[in-house]
Amino acid sequence: MTRTVGTTVRGIRTPIVKTGDNLVEMVVNSLKKSWENEGYQLKDRDIVGITESLVARAQGNYVTIDHIAQNIKAKFPGEIGVVFPILSRNRFSRILKGIAQGADKVYLLLSYPSDEVGNHLMDINKMDDLGINPHTDVLTEADYRRLFGDVKHEFTGVDYIQLYKDLSENNNIEIILANDPRVILNYTKNVLVADVHTRERTKRMLKKAGAQIVLGLEDICTEPINGSGYNEEYGLLGSNTASEDTLKLFPRDGQKYVEAIQARLKELTEKNVEVMIYGDGAYKDPQSKIWELADPVVSPAYTKGLEGSPNELKLKYLADNKFRDLRGEEISEAMKKCIAEKDENLVGDLASQGTTPRKLTDLLGSLCDLTSGSGDKGTPIVLIQGYFDNYATE
Q1: Of the candidates 339, 79, 305, which has an alpha carbon nearest to the alpha carbon of residue 213?
Q2: Could you tell me if 92 and 222 lie in one domain?
Q3: Contacts of 102 (CB under 8 A, 6+ apart)
Q4: Structure confidence by residue, pLDDT tens digits, 200-223
Q5: The domain containing residue 320 runs over which residues?
Q6: Whole-model pTM over 0.70
Q7: Do 55 and 68 share a structural domain?
Q8: Residue 297 is part of a domain; what is its CATH number?
Q9: pLDDT tens for residues 9-32?
Q10: pLDDT tens sequence across 158-212
């Protein structure tokens, strides 16, 4: 029978996970209940994605604002410059509150017209009309208000300048807007780098320019503080607000979990299933221009079979070029034969067309993130079947 379905994706519902729960058994049991109820079977090279928040909750990987304040006070004497944080209630506001609580003075340097992931502080057309040069011009908060007034985020309706100012109980946050991180050195030589994907370059620039202390969010909360959670690799990067005074950190020890789940599924089904932990997907919203990836990586842990990039041939190129004179079943059979045999001339020809060598985990993590969503779907496990099949697979 000719196969009529390719890749399928299922969001798997689970019980509500709490600290101390056996994550491995919960994931396996949820999958088992799903395939028994829905009437499907696991196959070799199926992929199980587990959202990072599920792992972190099971670990109890939380810190409080007080924990952040203690760590800031221990690593920064008195004042601190914070460079290029993203604009986010969920991601950065609680972190900033902890920083302000732990420092005598906070100089907060924001990039403009938008943050690193595309959240805008101003209308770019108005910025151009005003003759502002984002490469060189430095704006104080007073300059910003005079030129742009009260600016609210397109989707959240939040004035992030006001939100961040109001987080300080001691009125000790001063905001500056500039796109050169070295501007912060006009205020303080002690800097916390808060950007995510460009952080290493920012650190290098600051150190070369004479900064005395240069740390990143990944250097804060890297070890337990009075019984708190921690992440030795990412620190506060990838953290999310859990409550008014608590943050959930990016999960740690992820490799242990994915390999244990893989082994347990092998024991139960005799199938070689790949497993990954995923966070934000790596995609950009076309309307808001916001890049959704605020986590340091899409996938902090995955089994060995998910290493590398896809090895795929472009069917549309085959149809329009090599097989342009064929139709119907004739072209289908010719394509299947080429794909199955991996014609070397064909592969070389297609490689010259510039296919994008994206990481498997970035693609799969984005698929998982879009499937599970960020709301109330209740499906923190995603099962992907047929992803590694191709047009020739029966």
Answers
A1: 79
A2: yes
A3: 68, 69, 70, 71, 72, 73, 76
A4: 999 999 999 999 999 999 999 999
A5: 315-351
A6: yes
A7: no
A8: 3.30.1330.100
A9: 999 999 988 999 999 999 999 999
A10: 999 999 999 988 889 999 999 999 999 999 999 999 999 999 999 999 999 999 9
